[in-house]
Amino acid sequence: MFKMIVLYSIVSALFIHGSSAKVAPSYIKTCPGLKSDCLKKTIEDTLPHFAKGIPELGIAPIDPLAEDHVKLILPGGFKVELHNGTMTGLRKCDIESVSYANNEANMLMHCNLTIKGVYKASGRILIVSINGDGDAKIKIKKLKLVAKIKFQDKERDGVIYHEAKDLKIEHEYGDKVIFSLTNLFQGNPELSEAVLQFLNQNWKQIAEEFGQPLVDRLVSIVSKIITKFFTVVPKDELFVD
Ligand SMILES: *[C@@H]1O[C@H](CO)[C@@H](O)[C@H](O)[C@H]1NC(C)=O
Ligand SMILES: *[C@@H]1O[C@H](CO)[C@@H](O)[C@H](O)[C@H]1NC(C)=O
């Protein structure tokens, strides 16, 4: 009898150890059958946690997303530098729909995003000249994001991973983009204010004609973080038939 108990304890200890040796954090739940409703709910529940990053897996936060220094040349030769940049809001995105079929996931969401930093900029935007440096805050209201991820199984050390081999994120501006930028025209507060008003009145055209390099930069950072996640978490912890 005693032997049986010892044996039982060893087996259950092994079993419990085995089943808890998961790579993914415990807040990540699976969706048997990968049904859309479950996926939507799971992603809604997971996003606020995932957004903070998973340091033990080397996965950086996406909210806040920090970039010490970004230097961009926008269409028309307009130069912008952003120091100590942060973007917040991804953790609160509204997930509208998610689907998964034939190794491809599609997700539609709306996000309110805020970018902040210390900027330096010079050049022409549409009809105005800018030559300034100061504080920058850009609020993007109800940005529509459509993400498409193609997956592919990869086996490493006997473990199967469902890796993101192709990730595309398309965007469409929604309600508004609000620029709050100080000192757009160095040493001239009246002109700075007039230029800022112009930017805000023409936010849609400005975002569409000049925003692409910034969006590309953000998409590339977020894509890398998502790709990394699927590279380190085994398939069977995420995908259940
Ligand atoms: C960025 O932040 C660091 C640390 O808070 C600060 O020392 C530095 O002056 C900041 N850079 C700019 C351009 O404001
Ligand atoms: C975005 O902000 C608007 C109000 O400005 C709010 O109605 C909406 O629920 C917000 N959406 C998200 C995804 O936070």
Q: Could you say which overall geometry the principal axes of the C-alpha atoms support? A: elongated
Provide the succession of SSEs: HHEEEEEEEHHH
Biggest sheet overview: 7 strands, antiparallel
Instruction: Name the average pLDDT.
Output: 90
How many DSSP helices? Answer: 5
Amino-to-carboxy terminus distance? 40 Å
- List how many beta strands DSSP finds: 7
Estimate the helix proportion, in percent: 25-40%
* CATH architecture assignment name: Super Roll
What's the helix and strand layout?
Blueprint: H1 2-20, H2 36-50, E1 65-74, E2 78-88, E3 94-101, E4 104-125, E5 128-156, E6 159-172, E7 176-181, H3 189-201, H4 203-210, H5 212-232
Antiparallel strand pairs: 1-2, 2-4, 3-4, 4-5, 5-6, 5-7
Bound molecules: 2-acetamido-2-deoxy-beta-D-glucopyranose (2 copies).
